[in-house]
Automatic annotation (TrEMBL):
<keyword id="KW-0067">ATP-binding</keyword>
<dbReference type="GO" id="GO:0005524">
    <property type="term" value="F:ATP binding"/>
</dbReference>
<keyword id="KW-0813">Transport</keyword>
<dbReference type="GO" id="GO:0016887">
    <property type="term" value="F:ATP hydrolysis activity"/>
</dbReference>
<dbReference type="GO" id="GO:0016020">
    <property type="term" value="C:membrane"/>
</dbReference>
<dbReference type="InterPro" id="IPR027417">
    <property type="entry name" value="P-loop_NTPase"/>
</dbReference>
<feature type="domain" description="ABC transporter">
    <location>
        <begin position="58"/>
        <end position="282"/>
    </location>
</feature>
<keyword id="KW-0547">Nucleotide-binding</keyword>
<dbReference type="InterPro" id="IPR015860">
    <property type="entry name" value="ABC_transpr_TagH-like"/>
</dbReference>
<dbReference type="Pfam" id="PF00005">
    <property type="entry name" value="ABC_tran"/>
</dbReference>
<dbReference type="InterPro" id="IPR003593">
    <property type="entry name" value="AAA+_ATPase"/>
</dbReference>
<comment type="similarity">
    <text>Belongs to the ABC transporter superfamily.</text>
</comment>
<protein>
    <submittedName>
        <fullName>ATP-binding cassette domain-containing protein</fullName>
    </submittedName>
</protein>
<dbReference type="GO" id="GO:0140359">
    <property type="term" value="F:ABC-type transporter activity"/>
</dbReference>
<dbReference type="InterPro" id="IPR003439">
    <property type="entry name" value="ABC_transporter-like_ATP-bd"/>
</dbReference>
<dbReference type="InterPro" id="IPR050683">
    <property type="entry name" value="Bact_Polysacc_Export_ATP-bd"/>
</dbReference>
Length: 288
């Protein structure tokens, strides 16, 4: 997304944000502005999936399919009109049931998926733990450190300088020379985290990566997140562990079916979410 590279003017007037809910915007502290963001996937040959009515791509598509026997194309609306502003120094948890759109939101903020509509403005350089996207299981940890860190915008020399720190932080020792496919899930998660954190990004986005880490690594991760926040960065953390979210975040967004349901204080949002999940379970049980 070109917006990320551009100098962004953060003099945002909430009045200009149309129908979106009014935002508490303090332009000096703003690190990210997501305005009425819609993100979709195009799925080939699928029946209805995702949230809301799937879009039929129309008569032309049907005609083309009839001729060429091509599969149907469906649109999965994964993020459906999300608006929020994030400040420097915040650690923002993102919670929601499976498939609610959390990972998609992070991918869109990182510029990995173009939005259908709406905008994402980022002050500085966002790094999704989504170096995941560029890492290759068949290559060694060492090669992946190089690839991942280059993808995050470090120079070759910077990667060389930080290489030992990354290995030490990830606690993978000699495994650094083995292919990543030989790593345990915890080791893989630690290495991904260490690579992502090596760039000291302005916005660090972590998707589930901590869930496989052990307690010691969790503590280190928290320290790294705090360091990024103290250097005026912003951290996003997607996790299904409400305990992790509550211990690490200053604010929580709850997403459901691609929409923002609640945005606020961690205890309050996690409490409402827990209640919602319990109600849903009870409802599902009563349907049996
Ligand atoms: N690559 C993809 N192609 C097509 N549809 C996708 C793709 N990735 C996600 N989706 C769909 O988009 C919706 C949102 O998915 P997303 O992965 O963002 O949810 P999530 O909240 O991260 O879920 P989880 O908690 O399981 O990680 C779901 O309906 C999912 O099926
Ligand atoms: Mg996800």
């Amino acid at each position: 997304m070109t917006d990320i590279e551009e100098e962004v003017d953060f003099e945002v007037d909430p009045e200009d944000l149309g129908d979106a809910p009014a935002l508490q915007v303090d332009s000096d502290r703003l690190s990210l502005l997501v305005n009425d963001l819609h993100v979709s996937y195009r799925v080939f040959g699928a029946k209805k999936v995702g949230h809301g009515p799937a879009r039929d791509w129309g008569l032309l598509d049907r005609l083309v399919r009839r001729g060429a026997k091509q599969p149907a194309i469906r649109e999965v609306k994964a993020v459906r009109g999300i608006t929020f502003a994030a400040n420097h120094g915040e650690a923002i948890g993102i919670i929601g049931v499976n498939g609610s759109g959390k990972s998609t939101l992070l991918r869109a903020i990182a510029g990995l998926i173009p939005p259908v509509s709406g905008t994402v403005h980022v002050a500085g350089n966002p790094a999704l733990l989504g170096v995941n996207a560029v890492l290759m299981k068949n290559l060694s940890g060492a090669r992946n450190i190089m690839i991942g860190a280059l993808a995050l915008g470090l120079s070759r020399n910077e990667v060389k300088e930080r290489f030992d720190d990354i290995v030490e932080f990830a606690e993978i020792g000699e495994f650094v020379n083995l292919p990543m496919k030989s790593y345990s899930s915890g080791m893989g998660a630690r290495l991904r985290f260490a690579i992502s954190a090596s760039a000291v990004p302005d916005i660090l986005m972590i998707d589930e990566a901590l869930s496989t880490g052990d307690a010691g690594f969790r503590a280190k991760s928290k320290a790294k997140m705090d360091e990024i926040r103290e250097s005026a960065g912003t951290v996003f953390l997607v996790s299904h562990s409400l305990a992790t979210i509550q211990s690490m975040c200053t604010r929580v967004l709850w997403i459901h079916e691609g929409k923002l349901v609640m945005d606020g204080e961690p205890r309050e949002v996690c409490g409402s979410y827990k209640q919602f999940v319990a109600d849903r379970k009870r409802h599902a049980a009563s349907q049996k």
